[in-house]
Amino acid sequence: MIPAIYGGVKWVKTGKSMSKRDVIVPLDIPDVRVLRTELGEKNELIIVVESVKGGVRCRKCGQWVNKLHGQDEWVTIRHLPAFGRPSYLRYRPKRYQCGGCEGHPTTTEKLDWHESNSPHSFAYDEHILLQLINSTIEDVSIKETISYDSVLGTLERRIESTVDWAGYIELGILGLDEIALKKGHRDYVTLVTTRNEHGDIHLLGVLSGRTKDEVIDFLRLIPERLQKTVKTVCCDLWEGFTEAVQQEIPEAQIVADRFHVSRHYREAADDVRKNELQRLKKELPTEQYKKLKGSMWAFRKSANNLTPEEKSVLSLFFRLAPLAKKAYKLRELLTAIFEMRITKALAEKKIRVWIKKAKSSGLLCFNAFFNTLEHWWHEITNYFLLRQNSGFVEGFNNKVKVLKRRAYGLYNLKHLFQRIYLDMQGYRLFALPATTIYG
């Protein structure tokens, strides 16, 4: 089928004079003929077309019928912009009559490029969705001079609000993490994601909370064929997640996110830094204390990433605060263990040695972390089996937080799923590849 085309006007300079000739522009819609083009009152382009399909399938018997019975009222819909101006398609839907059915019913033709009752062509819907990626509904409505509801309607029509399991052959790794929709850590929602073998992240669900029952309800929606393919579940140290996975997918290895674990012992070490700086502020002369400026950021960095200036200020700080030096070294030692590509058994042995060193150091800052290690021992050390972690989940969540701030007040979970899905997959679905544009 050849897409319909319409003529435009293009001025071409030939020598000293100007000549006018037609330029052909594809409409990218099948089975129509352009009857005429005209400019509206606001200089919008109006393209009047008619269908050339020549028939429809009878809505009762399903047979092809081509006896024209009449036409409905004129329909005007928004189409892709052309040469910087909005364009519209105008047509009259045709009705065909079936001679084989009792009562000779009529069937109105359905077009491949427009859905009944939609104010846009399919192509313009895709254009709107492309504009909406990493933007807001309000911004797109202003730029396209259409209503807020028109943009929202496009999102509703074209983007699914739940995952299509038929599009997955296997899952492999799941990520579970929560974000707060409101300030002050309120109204938590759980994001369920998966990462394929190519590293691509896919959104599977947005849950209304983070309780065990809510996670169980979602896991039960996963088809049995896909449940069997889940090998690893990465999550933070939250029993609602781990208990739900143990109950519904007992064969999967639960891996406590390494970055959540590191946050616990890094914050413990940082508490020592804060206490020592408070002590030194009281004990040292003002001029001498000012020399410790920048010690906070230096302390929080890995030793391998320190600049010469940071090494200098940290060295001074450690001379004045030996407890902070102990905490820093213990923190770096444990991080080094997690960086090692070793077996789970060897990692467990090394971590137990670290625990002994930390307990014998005289520091109390790690006591709470010792309890965390004991309670989540297997989940934490499972990291060394395949070195899986929720780094992809955390990176994904940061993108969602940007979306949340950009689309302030986005509390509808259905719309949240659609917007996240569009931001993740929109360019792949709706952007034309360069080869299509330039050949």
Describe the fold and architecture:
By secondary structure, the chain is an alpha+beta fold. The protein is built from 18 helices and 16 strands. It has helices spanning 122-132, 137-143, 148-158, 212-219, 224-227, 239-248, 258-283, 286-290, 295-300, 308-320, 322-339, 344-360, 367-375, 377-381, 383-386, 391-406, 413-430, 434-438, and strands at residues 5-14, 17-26, 32-39, 45-51, 56-57, 64-65, 67-71, 75-82, 85-91, 94-97, 106-108, 172-182, 186-195, 201-207, 230-235, 253-256. It has a five-stranded mixed beta sheet, with helices on both faces. Strands 3-4-9-8 form a four-stranded mixed beta sheet. The chain has a three-stranded antiparallel beta sheet with strand order 7-10-11, with no helix packed on it. Strand 12 (172-182) and strand 13 form a beta hairpin. Helix 1 (122-132) crosses helix 17. The protein is elongated. It starts with a strand and ends with a helix. The model is unreliable at 7-20 and 434-439 (pLDDT under 50).
Taking the sheet with the most strands, its summary is: 5 strands, mixed
Distance between the termini: 20 Å
Strand proportion, as a percent range, falls in 15-25%
Question: Which spans of ≥5 residues are poorly predicted at pLDDT below 50?
Answer: 7-20, 434-439
Structural class, by secondary structure, is: alpha+beta
Overall 3D geometry? elongated
Output the strand order for the largest sheet.
14-13-12-15-16
**Rg, Cα atoms, Å:** 31 Å
Number of strands: 16
Percent helix:
40-55%
